[in-house]
TrEMBL record:
Annotated GO MF terms: DNA binding
PROSITE patterns from the UniProt entry: HTH_CROC1
A Pfam family that the UniProt record links to this protein: HTH_31
Domain HTH cro/C1-type, first and last residues per copy: 12-68
Protein name (database record): Transcriptional regulator with XRE-family HTH domain
Length: 254
């Protein structure tokens, strides 16, 4: 079987314009982010080879996959788990599906929203590389160009986010901590604020999702996480002199 050719920025832009789609509309049809479309068309990132197949499906009005629709108020656990399994089967490797099953583990001990988030994160990229799963935060590589992910990392001083990421380009590194709060979401509790500030002091960006957010729109939550990872990777590449910083907008004169 012949290999799929890489897609050039002009090809993607022409395809989108021929279908009379905005970047946001194409992103919605692909189940991705507008940021990804913008980066691919600008040549900042190389789109995945499978994009050609996805675009071919769109040309014939066939969606590459079906969205997961869940009512967060009345989620049926078995139905949601099966929906996520089906979605991962469409887009992820056997390893990702196995990890999802392992994370489910004892259904009483792992909240469903957290299992869904981890299952989808197994398919995540930082815009350049696939995210690598590692067993311990203290064993992360200190060189190379990669993004690594650790589930329930021990970051010291009692700091245990649900998942943490490190984007690295040799000596340049940026970090992200993600929390899932299913009990008291959106409440700015003193203890939570202290934990977040402690992570910020260690150089982390911090994101928190409620369980309802994840159940209602797991792919949207992943899109928000990967968008931050994209930014962190670009910060590393700018610091390393690989790419140039974006031009600063001139202050408007009132």
């Amino acid at each position: 079987m012949s290999e799929l050719l890489d897609m050039e920025p002009d090809e993607l832009r022409t395809f989108r314009q021929n279908l009379d789609l905005t970047q946001a509309e194409l992103a919605e049809k692909l189940g991705g982010s507008r940021r990804s479309i913008e980066d691919w068309e600008a040549g900042r990132r190389q789109p995945p080879a499978m994009l050609r197949l996805a675009l071919a499906a769109l040309r014939f009005d066939v969606r590459p996959w079906s969205p997961i629709t869940i009512d967060p108020r009345y989620p049926d656990r078995e139905s949601v788990e099966n929906a996520v399994r089906d979605r991962l089967h469409e887009v992820a490797s056997d390893r990702a599906q196995t990890k999802f099953e392992n994370w489910l583990g004892d259904t009483a001990s792992l909240p469903l929203a957290e299992a869904i988030l981890l299952g989808f994160l197994e398919t995540a990229t930082d815009g350049y590389n696939d995210v690598e799963l590692r067993d311990g935060w203290d064993r992360l590589p200190k060189s190379g160009w990669r993004t690594t992910m650790v589930v329930k990392p021990a970051l010291g001083n009692g700091l245990h986010p649900n998942v943490a990421f490190e984007t690295r380009h040799d000596e340049h590194a940026r970090r992200l901590a993600v929390f899932v709060d299913s009990k008291r979401p959106n409440e700015r509790l003193p203890g939570r604020l202290r934990v977040e500030q402690a992570l910020v002091d260690q150089g982390f960006r911090v994101m928190t999702f409620s369980g309802e957010e994840i159940l209602a729109d797991p792919e949207g939550c992943i899109d928000r996480i990967t968008s931050v990872l994209y930014d962190l990777v670009d910060e590393n590449l700018i610091a390393a002199g690989i790419i140039s910083p974006p031009p600063r907008k001139r202050d408007e004169i009132g």
